[in-house]
Amino acid sequence: MSKNNLNLSGQSAITKTVASLTKSLSERNRDIISRRFGLKNAKKETLESIGKSYGITRERVRQIEEFTLAQLSKGGPSVEVEKYATLARNFLNENGGIMRERDLFKAFSGSDSESVLNSSLVFVLTLDRDLTRFNDNDNFHSFWATDKVTLDNFKNMASVCSNLLEKSGKVSLEDQFYNLVKKNNASGLNGDLNQKHLTTYLAISKNVGKNIFNEVGLVSWPEIRPKGVRDKAYLVLKKENNPKHFSEIAKLINLAGFQGKKANVQTVHNELIKDDRFVLVGRGMYALSEWGYKSGTVKDVLVDLLKNSSKPIHRTALLTKVMNARMVKENTILLNLQDSKTFIKNEDGTYELKEA
Question: What's the structural domain count of the chain?
Answer without folding.
Answer: 4
